[in-house]
Amino acid sequence: MIAVAPSLSDRVLAALATVADPELDEPITELGFVRSVRIEDAKVTVHLRLPTSFCSPNFAYLMASDAVDALRRVDGLRGVVVQLDDHHDSDKINAGLAADAGYVGTFGVEAEESLDDLRRIFREKAHTAAMERCAEQLLRTTDVTVDDLHLVTLGDVPEGSHKEALVRRRAGIGLGAAPADPLVVDEAGAALVAAEVPLRLRFAKSVRISMEGNAHFCRGLLATRYGSTA
């Protein structure tokens, strides 16, 4: 079989698929936030859109700047332009991206918190939700009980999409992913004793349900806003 190298267009779309909504922990490509992609003379112009014009400006900036960073890593591209459409801060964000001004340089005194701190908060939430999905999978499909979960390690988790997502989320916040590492951990990544697991699981489930509910809500808003093009 002859391997066919991915086209520049395929590599651009693959790069955009690595960019996630920080609050929903889903790729912007799957959420419908990529409005258009145009490549001419090895220069790409990407337009992004969001469910409402008043989505949080720091979230909007984070996704747009992450898209710029992801596209700049694509071999063969000689130019990258990312623009956010139909947002009340579109002009400010697009000007900041074009000037490589960074978050604080874009929003000035309106930049209320560190973007790195914000990103860390949502990565920790994404890890918590991924951990709960793996724990629930074990409880549903094996003889493992809640009382056993403090003894369960990553090596006990079946291979598959849930485990792959958990390993990525752990890496994103600097946690190890060795087979002997405990599955259920606290917010700092420390192992729990048996009595602490039920409360941790209830919190993790609430985080997961909140993220999934928000994602569903955002898809509905996007479809309402843009109709059949969403």
From TrEMBL:
Q: Record's superkingdom?
A: Bacteria
Listed transmembrane segments: none
Q: Which InterPro entries match?
A: FSCA_dom_sf (IPR034904), MIP18-like (IPR002744)
According to the entry, every stretch annotated as the MIP18 family-like domain falls at: 10-82
The record's section on Pfam families has: FeS_assembly_P
Query: Would you tell me the protein name for this molecule?
Result: Metal-sulfur cluster biosynthetic enzyme
Organism of derivation? Kribbella aluminosa
